[in-house]
Design brief:
This protein is about 45% helix and about 10% strand. About 30% of the residues are buried. It comes from Vigna radiata var. radiata (Mung bean).
């Protein structure tokens, strides 16, 4: 260069040499001035390590994606069962995990129960994420970070291993045996899913969008602000009278299906999908998570409902008890509790008995869910047998009644 770098340039060189000891200054080969090149690279590294501790900016993910390539594409993200954009914090955490790989010169490995990170990388990443979590200012930020990290790790750990449609290992894919059908356009399901159930092989909520499609059965991930905003925007348009939660909480206002819909006007004319407006669609929220996690998820729904509609509780529907076929493999606290997909099938079956729904064949739509559940049970059973694992349901001790 024909001019002096100056004091600022020397300071930048020293900072870069500290952060990048394996890439000395004189080996750099780029078409832009040295000062700009090194300063941009340094900013990328600093952003990588401190991105959670400051507000989101347009630089944080967009510029890094331009310089180093998007780690998770929109196509890949939506392939797992959603129509949303890639959540900002999930994108940041995925990028930071890949950056940590470079800094440690080690590859991420996943395995064991739940497909968790393994080896020395896990130890270093655990220290980093714990420090980040503790530094976050409030419980809402902590929840968002927790959820995003769970999802980011599950995406990276499932690449090339799980089928994106059915969330089963490739060799056990059941997609060809699932029969799809259309859900009545006056009904929409929302799968309010805990991050620990995302990409879980024996999760049953995924069956609903396998059968009905992602627009009729929409995924909403707990603690992911972009997802929750999409769901609540739709619920606001529909109005509280058209929103129901399927959750057997005795402290909430519970109604049976018949009591909830006995005031609905009876009509023999089925409304065409193109003629339906947001306020004519019934929205059903299914809490998709373990029973231990569901209480916190339901409280979050209740708190949001009070902000949107006032002090009244979010209306809940109770279903007639019935055990799902999945009881054989996936334990429930008691035999009167059921899995997410079976709850959806039970709801459709009970609605079918009402005069205003009798002509739209909800029973056949319920049968499609039950068939897919049987397919999932068969696929999981064959996998367990092949791997030498027990296929006997273990009884679980619980205080839940």
């Amino acid at each position: 260069m024909g001019h002096s770098l100056g004091l600022l340039g020397i300071m930048q060189m020293k900072l870069v040499s500290t952060l990048l000891p394996t890439k000395p200054f004189f080996l750099c080969n780029c078409s832009v001035p040295f000062r700009l090149c090194f300063w941009n690279k340094t900013r990328v590294l600093l952003t990588r390590h401190y991105s959670y501790l400051r507000p989101h900016s347009s630089f944080s993910y967009t510029n890094m994606a331009q310089e180093e390539g998007v780690v998770v594409s929109l196509q890949e993200w939506q392939g797992w069962g959603t129509t949303s954009p890639l959540p900002t914090m999930v994108a940041q955490i995925v990028h930071d995990l890949k950056g940590l790989e470079q800094d440690l010169d080690a590859h991420m490995r996943f395995g064991g129960n739940g497909g968790k990170l393994q080896g020395n990388f896990r130890i270093q990443e655990d220290k980093k994420h714990r420090a980040t979590y503790q530094a976050l200012a409030d419980s809402e930020k902590k929840l968002q970070f927790y959820s995003a990290r769970q999802i980011a790790c599950r995406i990276l750990g499932s690449r090339g291993y799980l089928c994106q449609k059915c969330w089963l290992p490739m060799e056990d894919c059941m997609c060809s045996e699932v029969t799809s059908c259309s859900l009545h356009p006056g009904i929409r399901f929302w799968l309010y899913m805990h991050p620990k159930d995302f990409l879980r092989q024996n999760n049953t909520g995924k069956i609903l969008w396998q059968v009905f499609g992602v627009d009729a059965a929409s995924l909403c991930l707990f603690g992911i602000p972009e997802h929750e905003e999409i769901m609540w925007n739709s619920l606001k348009v529909a109005g509280k009278s058209k929103v129901w939660c399927l959750y057997p909480n005795k402290s909430a206002v519970l109604k049976s299906v018949q009591n909830a819909f006995d005031q609905e006007p009876v009509t023999s004319d089925e409304v065409a999908p193109s003629e339906l407006k947001g306020e004519t669609i019934h929205h059903f929220i299914l809490i998709d998570g373990t029973w231990s996690n569901s209480a916190a998820m339901f409280r979050r729904l209740q708190d949001k409902a009070k902000l949107v509609w006032g002090d009244e509780d979010l209306p809940c529907i109770s279903l007639n008890p019935g055990a799902s076929a999945m009881h054989k493999l996936r334990p429930q606290p008691s035999w009167d509790r059921t899995c997410t997909a079976a709850a959806a099938a039970g709801l459709l079956s009970e609605l079918q008995l009402l005069s205003q729904f009798r002509s739209i064949e909800l029973d056949k739509q319920a049968e499609a869910i039950e068939h897919a559940l049987s397919v999932l049970l068969d696929a999981l059973t064959k996998r367990r047998v092949r791997m030498g694992r027990s296929i006997t349901r273990k009884m679980r001790q619980t205080n839940i009644r």
